[in-house]
Amino acid sequence: MGRNRLEAFSDGVLAIIITIMVLEMKVPHGSDLSALRPLIPVFLSYVLSFVYLGIYWNNHHHMLHATQSVSGPILWANLHLLFWLSLFPFATAWMGENHFAPAPTALYGVPLLMAAIAYWLLQRAIIAKQGRASLLAFAVGSDLKGKLSPTLYLVAIPLAFWHQWIAGAIYVFVALIWLVPDRRIERALQKKLGRDKA
Amino acid sequence: MGRNRLEAFSDGVLAIIITIMVLEMKVPHGSDLSALRPLIPVFLSYVLSFVYLGIYWNNHHHMLHATQSVSGPILWANLHLLFWLSLFPFATAWMGENHFAPAPTALYGVPLLMAAIAYWLLQRAIIAKQGRASLLAFAVGSDLKGKLSPTLYLVAIPLAFWHQWIAGAIYVFVALIWLVPDRRIERALQKKLGRDKA
Amino acid sequence: MGRNRLEAFSDGVLAIIITIMVLEMKVPHGSDLSALRPLIPVFLSYVLSFVYLGIYWNNHHHMLHATQSVSGPILWANLHLLFWLSLFPFATAWMGENHFAPAPTALYGVPLLMAAIAYWLLQRAIIAKQGRASLLAFAVGSDLKGKLSPTLYLVAIPLAFWHQWIAGAIYVFVALIWLVPDRRIERALQKKLGRDKA
Amino acid sequence: MGRNRLEAFSDGVLAIIITIMVLEMKVPHGSDLSALRPLIPVFLSYVLSFVYLGIYWNNHHHMLHATQSVSGPILWANLHLLFWLSLFPFATAWMGENHFAPAPTALYGVPLLMAAIAYWLLQRAIIAKQGRASLLAFAVGSDLKGKLSPTLYLVAIPLAFWHQWIAGAIYVFVALIWLVPDRRIERALQKKLGRDKA
């Protein structure tokens, strides 16, 4: 089974998730600029989730690029990841509409945490299929960022009940460390291509 | 006519169905965790339908993989399947919002049943086009699961009016027996590829 | 410019239109079967529009299959067609929710009529690009169905104000004459492929 | 990294944006034609935004066609463009529902302006990757339209508070000057292909 249809389906789901989030930004009834003020936290949550989904799409793209073939477990690990990503619009809207209240801010961390775990499981499934000597296994290496992120989410979720701004700052911080695209895989790919040509 | 555009269109529709279901999980007005409690049945219905749609996508993928060319009847059999799958969000939301009340739980079985029949019709249309000696006909064989599922739905639908939890348990059970990906087609494909190489 | 991205974009838009229509079938508040009764006209409208969009997707697929290259006018003629098709969910919902009242039933014919004209314009744009001796020009021929459909819509729209069931019957009739896939193009293609091989 | 998945994802997002806009055209409760009257400004806003998104899709298509490979900055510049385009449905609905009131008409210009800037940044990112001697750099040339559009939006936004119809006229005017497809890139491509063959 090729990886093309897996990519196409994931692209479709990600494109829809990233776009329907904007439907949660309800059009206000008033017609002056002040009617937009209550939407500011909704907009900020939207920006954060858009960046997160952009990061996932980007890294997902890189990871599948280093994947030669797709097995049943990879397929279901991928659907499992998409499931948690599909909850982003709900968590984003609840947090935004409640102006970063403690419980919604804590809950926002749950799909973030579960998606990070699901991404790690997908990575494992691909490496299991291709062998530990594979390109992806080599590229991922110690996977510092992949281990740091869920740890930070686990810290942020309870902290949200104590002071939600710290949790929010952690969510933004994790997004920033991932905004740098996953050069590890790109470099490993280029090295390998260099070796193959040589 | 190639099968690529059929796959792309089906992927698109399935990706949208699986994603808009989450829109039925309405953002609650309260901002504490107890506001999420009434959403638990909605969430559970969402998980079940997500798994069902994942199974359909997975098996659809395998079936088309064993299909060489697409005819008019295949095209319409495929649209017929997508029609019943498109009713999943409605049935899921009605069942979830009414906390598994009898009538919505019974109705949830109707698109499940019709989609199972539509899938079987699509399989017939593909085999009719390719001949009974085709790879797919060989792979499908006696098709035990494909015959068991609609039978179980037919049992579950009236049972829902008597005790809805039995119907729910049957829906979950059918999903579990399908979660095992359709190895029959995969094995037949691999055998054939082996023979072709030899 | 290739026709692949045009196909992919059209497939995406059509997949979304066909799927979001189901969002207009609002989940009822009651939890017994009688709560579904007011939804029956909405469901019937949905079925009719689903069939129409399936026909458009099917014929669009055939038409682009006979198209070698894409020009600016073809691109915009295609977007023009997608625009009118995008109004199907609105017209469908208005007609369904008002139980086939005269004005909504008349209005339902407007996107049908405009989409038929837009399809004809797209056909013209493709033939203009490829020359009157092209495969598509040959396949389309006198285009009886393509001329009959808008005429019938033009008759149905005013009739809806007098007796809406006649208009509804005409809409169903036109769908039925199109359900037969466009064999003309398929036959012309096969003849040509036959000649090319010979 | 190839440009195919970037195109597919962008196509998906654009197809969804262009289609969910129609969801903002709420089905009216009345069943006579007069119930449609308040929807006229919503419809006109929809047409304008549909044309704008069609222009972006068209030009995006041309630009990526002249792009050989995709880098991290190109990927993020593209996501940045999609972000601002994703706000079109919101801005369109607010302007339409308030019948072109001053503040919503001014705000409509903001995603237009930001998308124009994002498009320019994406163009820069592609040229930066391919070198100033690249085909795209040559094709874009002095980029008169690309510089005129944001200037006109910057003029229209404050004018909307003084007399909103002038702003609306500017938005329509910019759409009209872009409706002519970007022949520069097409011509440069054809010239180059001609040279390559010679």
Q: What's the helix and strand layout?
A:
The structure is a homotetramer of 198-residue chains.
Chain A: H1 4-20, H2 40-65, H3 72-86, H4 88-97, H5 102-130, H6 135-140, H7 144-162, H8 164-179, H9 183-197
Helix pairs in contact in A: 1-2, 1-3, 2-4, 2-8, 3-5, 4-5, 5-7, 5-8, 7-8
Explain this structure.
4 copies of one chain form a homotetramer. With 198 residues, chain A is mainly α. Chain A is built from 9 helices and no strands. In chain A, helix 5 (102-130) runs parallel beside helix 8 (164-179). The first copy, chain A, is elongated. The A-B interface holds A 1, 5, 8-9, 12-13, 15-17, 20, 23-24, 72, 75-76, 79, 82-83, 86-87, 89-90, 93-94, 97-98, 101, 103-104, 107 and B 7-8, 11-12, 14-16, 18-20, 22-23, 25, 27-28, 31-33, 35-36, 47, 50, 54, 57-58, 61-62, 65, 179, 181, 186.
- Percent helix of chain A: over 70%
Order of helices and strands of chain A: HHHHHHHHH
Largest sheet of chain A: none
Mean pLDDT across every amino acid position of chain A: 85
Question: What portion of the residues of chain A fall into strands of 2 or more residues?
Answer: under 5%
Uncertain residue ranges of chain A: none
Q: In total, how many beta strands of chain A?
A: 0
Q: What oligomeric state do these chains adopt?
A: homotetramer
Keywords:
mainly alpha; 77% helix; 0% strand; 198 residues; homotetramer
Quick description:
Helices cover 77% and strands 0% of the residues of chain A. The radius of gyration of chain A is 19 Å and the shape is elongated. The longest helix of chain A has 29 residues, at 102-130.
